[in-house]
Amino acid sequence: MPENREVTIYDIAKHLNISAATVSRGLKNNPMINKNTRKKIADAAKQLGYQSNTFASSLRSKHTHTLGVLVPRLNSYFMSSVLAGMENAANRHGYNLIIAQSLEDAEKEKLNAETMFNKRVDGLLISLSYNTQHINHLEPFFKRKIPVVFFDRVYPHNESTSIVINNYGAAYNITQHLIEQGCRRIMHLGGNVLRNVYKDRLDGYRQALNDNRLPVIQQLYLTSNLSEQAGIEAARYILDMAPDDRPDAVFSANDTAAVYCMLTLKAAGIRIPEDIAFAGFNNDPISKVIEPNLTTVDYSGDTVGNTAVTNLINHLKGDSNLYITNSITLRSDLVIRASSLKKQIARN
Amino acid sequence: MPENREVTIYDIAKHLNISAATVSRGLKNNPMINKNTRKKIADAAKQLGYQSNTFASSLRSKHTHTLGVLVPRLNSYFMSSVLAGMENAANRHGYNLIIAQSLEDAEKEKLNAETMFNKRVDGLLISLSYNTQHINHLEPFFKRKIPVVFFDRVYPHNESTSIVINNYGAAYNITQHLIEQGCRRIMHLGGNVLRNVYKDRLDGYRQALNDNRLPVIQQLYLTSNLSEQAGIEAARYILDMAPDDRPDAVFSANDTAAVYCMLTLKAAGIRIPEDIAFAGFNNDPISKVIEPNLTTVDYSGDTVGNTAVTNLINHLKGDSNLYITNSITLRSDLVIRASSLKKQIARN
């Protein structure tokens, strides 16, 4: 037979000289069929290249055992950890992941959501793009009761669960830590406040200043996409300030901008933390390599991914109901390293 | 109607008070149907939550427009860049990616390959696990003429294409560069030589030594999984050597081991590059953050992913034939940074 023709149960039956009905039962592991025969059938199926008809049976059952994952960018350390955690959980439960990235573009996010819908994913896991304004593009999922789980960059919605960390609390704590180190003019490098993660981090920072009766200085708040380049530009902005106007600490909403700001300031002779203390967010690998090592917030992408998928699958299996869970907040840790330890340096 | 019932063309027809045949033609964008009517049909389909039947039509056409991607680990910087490049190319051609990770385990790789096969992917993209010994688990794909593209960690096979860089040449060049900087006792931190990438880097290193009539010293070759911990242990190994036996340079087969080896040696007072010069491989973000910055080999994961998917899809579309392409070698660049520049330091 030509090699690329589909192998059927009839081919297996012919090969073993038994009936197609026996093959069919054997492939379903029906105990009516003798164990040895079942083994023979399984071996022949493998040898001949038989593909079990998950595809047709999906069509019948209306379940594809496939989850859609829609992320802003695949190539970030955090997102790759999230994906690793998702794949682990999905694999354990016999689900597959289809992935797509919006490249931080709302329009591409919309097109990707349409594709996922037409691919009939059993559920959708989504972290929103930088400039997504609304979630009308997810309406088809809500209408058809296909569960949607938001993670990290989330959107309030009555029938979806969000997996987040307490961004507000983490930012509050890291700002409080800088204040305890004696910092009074703390700059914040923030992202787009359309996204909860950046809005909450900004709010936590401001609240900590307020609670310590420190002024919120507009000049010390920069927003950007928090890229390497944005970190370099923030450093230039600081260097252009009159020395007395400069911040004595920088809290960046991610590690990348913090690290590239530090490198640029160090090259200009600024001492860290003596002149300017630093704190970032994410605990990326670069935060442990920069000197001095960067104080940051650690939260496990792996756990975010694992939790998102596990909750989605439990819902699909009927073991729990996502629609009554509004949000799941995961733990994060303040990791204090040398970049913010002004007092210790002063004591030495 | 109940919200989770499947919406059919009959629902759309009823909603618009036109015939189901008109709806069917309109959804296929048949020019026989008036343009305004087509728009009305498309709008109603969206509003009612109609899912185009890609699923059933896949079953008819035997194509799923889905590619399987099987990688050792999702959470590495290189692999996340590869995935980003793959998603870009797949998305552009209307293909989706199903992903799975072997977690460096041959057995899990085998199970993942089976799942991909039964999910009826149109093609498979695979980078082998650390300890995969053979590719018998890919036989079902070869039998059914489902094209397989290997990338990065590849396996010689007559009917598959491999996407690689010239690992041998890159390792040769970086070793030659260290020799030109005056290094004579160059240590190599290598990976499992079962995998082409590590075997070829080792061979390139050795050939450069031979061509410069330098001895290949067994004591200066360590193999490991090239993790952070492996880098730290390599540093301890060096520190345990008598000072005269120590290497004057280290060429590591990845950046992670190089960087953690550097950090540990620096903490022990070893000067880089004056006492020991360093070179890595991959151009990971940490290589630009470590001080001194790490000399390394840059090759774009994005390009690897893009090339692998584009070639696979061109084959599936009949535009080209993968089976006659044995391998595609992509360009890599030697990136020289301060960690290896002994001579410049000597001159200053």
Structure explained in plain terms:
Chain A folds into three domains: 9-52, 434 Repressor (Amino-terminal Domain); 65-165 and 301-331, 3-Layer(aba) Sandwich (Rossmann fold), CATH 3.40.50; 167-299 and 334-347, 3-Layer(aba) Sandwich (Rossmann fold). The model of chain A has no long low-confidence stretch (mean pLDDT 91). Chain A has 348 residues and is of the alpha/beta class. Chain A contains 13 helices and twelve strands. The longest helix of chain A has 16 residues, at 77-92. Chains A and B meet through helix 4, helix 5, strand 2, helix 6 and helix 7 of A and helix 4, helix 5, strand 2, helix 6 and helix 7 of B. Strand 2 of chain A pairs antiparallel with strand 2 (96-101) of chain B. Chains A, B: Keywords: DNA-binding, Transcription, Transcription regulation. Chains A, B: GO terms for molecular function: DNA-binding transcription factor activity; transcription cis-regulatory region binding. Chains A, B: Residues 7-61 form the HTH lacI-type domain.
Topology at a glance:
Two copies of one chain form a homodimer.
Chain A: H1 9-16, H2 20-27, H3 35-48, H4 54-61, E1 66-71, H5 77-92, E2 96-101, H6 106-118, E3 123-126, H7 139-143, E4 148-151, E5 161-165, H8 167-180, E6 186-190, H9 196-211, E7 221-223, H10 228-240, E8 249-252, H11 255-267, E9 277-279, E10 296-298, H12 301-316, E11 327-330, E12 333-335, H13 342-347
Parallel strand pairs in A: 1-2, 1-3, 3-4, 4-5, 5-11, 6-7, 6-8, 8-9
Antiparallel strand pairs in A: 10-12
